[in-house]
Amino acid sequence: MTKVSLDIESFKALASETRLDILRALDGKKMNLTDICHATNLHKMTLHEHLSKLTEAGFINRIEREGHKWVYYKLSWKGESLLHPENTHIVVLFSFTFFIFFLGIVAIVNFIKQQAPNPEPGMLMSPAPSAPSPFLYISVGCFVVFSILCSVSLWRYSKNRTPRL
After folding, report:
1. Helix (H) or strand (E) holding 74
2. If you classify domain 8-83 with CATH, what class do you get?
3. What are the residue ranges spanned by the domains of the chain?
4. Pairing relation of β-strands 71-75 and 31-32?
């Protein structure tokens, strides 16, 4: 299980059941004050106070666009990590997947460099074909592992993005 580190201000912000309900309401959504009021059945002034404490603690982001009168709120990375700690596993899996892909590209480049003809002066015939290079096997293996890990990563990501009740 992934650990989420919290400071004293974070604990103070999470001490209220109402603020936890607000975090759950914002899970995977971007909502304005009225939408959150309807989802939590709270008065706007009460909700505004709770939202300011959650914003100060870093659990939600306040999104203001210039020229627009509506202010939207959505979970920050810290808030997402609190509700979905498995996201960290998915990020690590994606990173490892693309590292394997990079290794496959390097192996292909080395294979191509190794296969390039090096004509020697005075030689009329090309040398006899040699055994397949280990770089070919490494690159094929890397691309197979990349495909499998990418599929698993995308499956876990899509499974994690569906809201849970």
Report:
1. strand 71-75
2. mainly alpha
3. 8-83, 87-161
4. antiparallel
